[in-house]
TrEMBL record:
It is found in: Cytoplasm. It comes from the Eukaryota. Functions in trans to edit the amino acid moiety from incorrectly charged tRNA(Ala). Residues 363-386 are annotated as: Disordered. One of its GO terms (cellular component) is cytoplasm. It comes from Nematostella vectensis (Starlet sea anemone). This is Alanyl-transfer RNA synthetases family profile domain-containing protein. GO terms for biological process: alanyl-tRNA aminoacylation; regulation of translational fidelity. The keyword Cytoplasm applies. InterPro entries: Ala-tRNA-synth_IIc_core, Alanyl-tRNA_Editing_Enzymes, Thr/Ala-tRNA-synth_IIc_edit, Transl_B-barrel_sf, tRNA_SAD. Residues 1-245 form the Alanyl-transfer RNA synthetases family profile domain. Its cofactor is Zn(2+). It holds the Pfam family tRNA_SAD.
Length: 386
């Protein structure tokens, strides 16, 4: 069955009749109903395109999916069979899907026509969409060529037409790509034609002129995958929303970095270099502090039976330096690093018997201190090291 939404993607309201309304058996959490109508303007999910949203008699449509030749509408309330159904479409969502889907047809056709790479699948995502291509990668020049050609076609006001053929024996179908059509298919076949560019079988909703796609933007980073690659893209209003977010980011970064957008990269690289030098200097200073503290302890052991050292800004390098300097002593050594009220680390170096006795108690104490948790470092025993 070809639905009203597939015959005219621009229908925003529609009246029809309820054929059936039954409880959804598979839904155990909520009481929802599966409603079948004589016809619908709400597109059921399929062909890489998500379902439409909208209202039926003022009731929100939670989901629309295809079961055989029927479109099933999932509602939270019951509607009587035979009752009139007034449908209102979420037009903003629909038009966005139309822009992305027609844009995908355009891109897939251009990629195959220019470079011979076939589209194996695609997905209309919530933020950005992607096409899966039967090629290892796309070069920057190829991506630039595809984007330029797509936007030229959009500026050319190329018509987009819907053709519905009675069955697969129609001779005009020979001009269209019908890859994926089952051998046992019976009934009408719907084809989307972009004049002079593409003619392809499709179930989704589309614009009626490429000018309504407005613009196409391809992302330069292509994801490699087994047997192909993914090309990500935006069409229509999504391009302008993405540009708006980018401009907001530019504004925020300009304020943080005290420079204009053209200098952001240089400013960040300068900060990263300074940070690396500062971290290197900090590690060196912590290592020197560890040597000094270890020397002071060794020179003033007296009758000490236990050594405890804590440094708030210490790290693993600090701990290892302390252990290397004091590990040969015959008394237990506990080193802790990290803030008093936050996550940290500790190491206990002692005999196996002392580790077995003190280790669990220290772990329990550290985890309960100040509302934070100390991440335990594997406890060491002198016996196991020798």
């Amino acid at each position: 069955m070809v639905f009203a939404c597939q015959k005219d993607s621009f229908l925003k309201e529609f009246k029809t009749e309820v054929v059936s309304c039954k409880p959804a058996k598979q839904n155990k959490k909520d009481d929802v109903f599966e409603v079948v109508l004589e016809d619908t303007i709400l597109f059921p999910e399929g062909g890489g395109q998500p379902d439409d949203k909208g209202m039926i008699n003022g009731i929100e449509v939670l989901q629309v999916f295809r079961r055989g030749r029927q479109a099933v509408h999932v509602l939270s309330q019951h509607i009587d069979e035979g009752a009139q159904a007034s449908l209102v479409l979420d037009w903003e969502r629909r038009f966005d899907h139309m822009q992305q889907h027609s844009g995908q047809h355009l891109l897939s056709a251009l990629i195959e026509n220019k470079f011979g790479y076939k589209t194996t699948s695609w997905e209309l995502g919530r933020v950005r969409s992607h096409i899966e291509l039967h090629c290892k990668c796309l070069t920057p020049d190829e991506i630039a060529c595809i984007e330029s050609s797509a936007n030229a076609a959009i500026r050319g006001h190329v018509p987009v037409c819907v053709h519905v053929y009675p069955d697969k024996t129609d001779p005009e179908l020979e001009e269209a790509q019908t890859r994926g059509l089952p051998d046992d298919h019976i009934g009408p076949i719907r084809v989307i034609e972009i004049k002079g560019i593409d003619k392809n079988m499709c179930c989704g909703t589309h614009v009626d002129n490429l000018s309504q796609v407005q613009a196409v933007k391809l992302f330069p980073d292509v994801d490699s995958m087994r047997g192909g690659c993914r090309l990500f893209f935006l069409c229509g209003d999504r391009v302008f929303k993405h540009l708006g977010r980018a401009m907001e980011n530019d504004r925020a970064l300009s304020k943080c970095l005290s420079c204009g957008p053209d200098e952001h990269t240089t400013a960040v690289e300068r900060i990263q270099t300074s940070l690396r030098l500062a971290n290197k200097s900090l590690k060196s200073q912590l290592r020197e502090i560890a040597y000094l503290e270890a020397s002071q302890i060794k020179s003033s052991l007296g009758g000490r039976t236990f050594i405890y050292i804590h440094r708030e800004n210490g790290d693993m390098d600090y701990i290892n330096t302390i252990v290397n300097e004091l590990g040969s002593l015959s008394i237990p050594l506990l080193v802790t690093v990290g803030p008093d009220k936050g996550p940290g680390q500790f190491l206990l170096l002692a005999s196996e018997a002392e580790v077995n006795e003190l280790g669990p108690r220290l772990s329990e104490l550290m985890e309960g201190k100040g509302g934070g948790k100390k991440k335990p470092i594997p406890r060491q025993s002198r016996q196991s090291e020798t």
